[in-house]
Amino acid sequence: MLSFLSRYYLVTEVNKNSSLACFRFHLQNKVQYYAAISVLKAGLKTSNLRDTKDRKSQGLPVKLPIPGVNNVIAVASGKGGVGKSTISVNLALALAQNSVHKVGLLDADIFGPSIPTLMNLSGQPEINHQNLMIPLLNYSVKCMSMGFLVDEQSAVVWRGLMVMSAIQKLLRNVLWGPLDFLVIDMPPGTGDVQLSITQNIPLSGSIVVTTPQDLALLDARRAVDMFRQVNVPNLGIIENMSVFVCPKCNHHEHIFGQEGGQSIANEIGSEILGSIPLVKELCFLSDNGQPVVVAEPENPVSLIFRSIADKVVRKLSK
């Protein structure tokens, strides 16, 4: 059941003339969608797309930075079940290692939020004098999720209008800054939420998570193509569950295939940021709200995440 807080801050605008608002919303999105397709087919340059006046003339939303946030990184996948949220959490924590960088983590999966469990957080955010929600904090990372605003066992059964309203609130009505990096754990797929985020805020880059399995690779290619169409640079590919490591004998077995992520990286002229093995401790620690990067900093998996974070920082500092 939705709390009063979440109703007030996420759907206030929806409750005002909801029928008319719904009509206007869908009409505006249709216009923006077809305008975006026309722009993409015309092959306009990225610099023109980013120009405010040009975006207005094309009927596209103006991209407005999130106050106080220097870099926004979208972590995405074409399908669910590839460990994207686990990757997002440990990447954010690796970026925040030794308190060198100020990092935030946004759970953009409205229907299946995972960040509260993975980050061992619960409760509702407080509201400051500016009517902005204050992110919950753990392991020195600011976090915001729909999971903080609804009951844990409650399903979010919303249509597109309410979902878009919620995303806007999580982006704009949260006291994010000052941050060096905001990591967005994107929902799976290439639908309304992804398009809304990429059209409304400037993204520094995207990271696509996949497994070596052929089925996951097909959807990962779609995610890569989506970011290409909206002119968001690809920072690299992360291959999760790259190899199974037996906890008893340390035998390595490529149960989902081999080098699938590398094939996508080669296709798009990018790179593999890192390959995360399928190990028991990563699964166990994640389920218990103890990300491996902080729970076992010297674990080989933690070292891989720190290496990925270093690569991301270097790419964004160029």
TrEMBL record:
<keyword id="KW-0004">4Fe-4S</keyword>
<keyword id="KW-0479">Metal-binding</keyword>
<dbReference type="InterPro" id="IPR033756">
    <property type="entry name" value="YlxH/NBP35"/>
</dbReference>
<dbReference type="GO" id="GO:0016226">
    <property type="term" value="P:iron-sulfur cluster assembly"/>
</dbReference>
<keyword id="KW-0411">Iron-sulfur</keyword>
<dbReference type="Pfam" id="PF10609">
    <property type="entry name" value="ParA"/>
</dbReference>
<comment type="function">
    <text>Iron-sulfur cluster transfer protein involved in the assembly of the mitochondrial membrane respiratory chain NADH dehydrogenase (Complex I). May deliver one or more Fe-S clusters to complex I subunits.</text>
</comment>
<keyword id="KW-0547">Nucleotide-binding</keyword>
<dbReference type="GO" id="GO:0005759">
    <property type="term" value="C:mitochondrial matrix"/>
</dbReference>
<dbReference type="InterPro" id="IPR027417">
    <property type="entry name" value="P-loop_NTPase"/>
</dbReference>
<protein>
    <recommendedName>
        <fullName>Iron-sulfur cluster transfer protein NUBPL</fullName>
    </recommendedName>
</protein>
<keyword id="KW-0408">Iron</keyword>
<dbReference type="GO" id="GO:0051539">
    <property type="term" value="F:4 iron, 4 sulfur cluster binding"/>
</dbReference>
<dbReference type="GO" id="GO:0005524">
    <property type="term" value="F:ATP binding"/>
</dbReference>
<dbReference type="GO" id="GO:0046872">
    <property type="term" value="F:metal ion binding"/>
</dbReference>
<dbReference type="GO" id="GO:0140663">
    <property type="term" value="F:ATP-dependent FeS chaperone activity"/>
</dbReference>
<comment type="similarity">
    <text>Belongs to the Mrp/NBP35 ATP-binding proteins family.</text>
</comment>
<keyword id="KW-0496">Mitochondrion</keyword>
<keyword id="KW-0809">Transit peptide</keyword>
<dbReference type="InterPro" id="IPR019591">
    <property type="entry name" value="Mrp/NBP35_ATP-bd"/>
</dbReference>
<dbReference type="InterPro" id="IPR044304">
    <property type="entry name" value="NUBPL-like"/>
</dbReference>
<dbReference type="GO" id="GO:0032981">
    <property type="term" value="P:mitochondrial respiratory chain complex I assembly"/>
</dbReference>
<keyword id="KW-0067">ATP-binding</keyword>
<dbReference type="InterPro" id="IPR000808">
    <property type="entry name" value="Mrp-like_CS"/>
</dbReference>
